[in-house]
Amino acid sequence: xxxxxxxxxxxxxxxxxxxxxxxxxxxGRKVGHWMWFMFPQIEGLGRSAIAQTFAVLSLHEAGAxxxxxxxxxxxxxxSSLVAAVSGRTARQIFGHPDDMKxxxxxxLFMKAAPGxxxxxxxxxxxxxxxxxxxxxxLLERLSALPGSDxxxxxxxxxx
Length: 159
Description:
- With 159 residues, the chain is mostly helical.
- It has eleven helices and no strands.
């Protein structure tokens, strides 16, 4: 199957650190450097090279990520572990600015897979139910572009 969205880049980045990520989330304290590829954000938020490498280009790509046989279950597992942490804020778990990245990532994936409980639980539990407005604004702008997400994603990934 063709990897139109180049999702393999996430799998390749996650594979060597996934068990470490799970251990950190179970302890309720992120210490590694994996936020970009474990909880990706919509393109336009991150400025660093690594943030741009792992930016999600559209809601369609976010849907493909959640539907991916490896990435979707991993995202849900990690999100469920975060949602289960009690007595700590997102900033205490992730530090700053990764707490903001978590909020934007959960906003993106909540829109891509609205029935996924863990994404909304994180927004409810850590951010008073409020999604990230910058992510919503970027998604709104993307939806106003002519053409389908699939076409835009394909063209953008070819460049």
